[in-house]
Amino acid sequence: MPDNPQTSTAPAFALGDHRVIALTGRDAAAFAQAQFMNDVTGLAPGQWHWSGWLTPKGRVLALFALLKLADDALWLVLPDADPVAFSAALQRFVFRAKVTIDVRDDLLVQGRFAAPASASGDTFAGDESSGIELDLGATGGARTLRIALAAAVASDDDARSRWAAFDLEHGLPRLAPSQAEHWTPQQLSLERLHAFSVKKGCYPGQEIVARTHFLGQAKRGLALFEADAALADGAEVRGESTALGKLVATADHTGRHLALAVLPFERAAQPLSVESQPLRERPLLDGLAR
């Protein structure tokens, strides 16, 4: 499935589709706890986890990595979504909280297919001045994500597409704007990434997420597919006689065309296709949970 991991000499490349949003101030952690779907109180400074922001109806607006630098400083590493629009929408909920929301245009997100120097699992390494490294490796190989003050780093479309394919293979949906506000955390199988909490206090969409969990109402989840030609986000997945679900994220790398789809857990074994193009189901890989 994934390519073999490269050695520690693997070059860094710009992840231009990832941006950093900083939450700073006395109430930064409390504000994040009230808005986002994972439990910020469970993080110590120097740790991170997957999280997201939901609509009141429990649909995912955006997924991101949330880093706790200090009790009054959090960073969101936001792939795919528009950081300016995201920040403006989040700002409407600040009210009297002592928190500042900034899009950090001075920070560059880089990737590398090699193990980090010090970061491991949910513990990141470094600081704002020297750069911060995250361990984004999994069973498919080693990866390092680095956030640093903007510097000249090569743009490598092939490496970036490989990075996106790795995400999909491990069940991390890369949500294009067309797929925002459509899916619940359970439909995106985000429990695999430990990306949401059903026990923390209130946050937008929490009631629907918790009810789905405790009443056992999750009927759909992610499945990974490969095809012989490029696939499109939002395309309908059909069985032999009926539509079963939709593609939520796609990636193409070195002739491999991958897609994550939301489909019923219980479905008869049958050929599946998108616009008459056959799909081959592949197992989701583990190891990206934090």
Automatic annotation (TrEMBL):
Coiled-coil parts of chain: none
Record keywords, A-Z: Transit peptide
The keyword Transit peptide is annotated on this UniProt entry: yes
Gene3D superfamilies: 2.40.30.160, Probable tRNA modification gtpase trme, domain 1
PANTHER family: TRANSFERASE CAF17, MITOCHONDRIAL-RELATED
Name recorded for this polypeptide: YgfZ/GcvT domain-containing protein
The organism of origin for this protein: Lysobacter cavernae
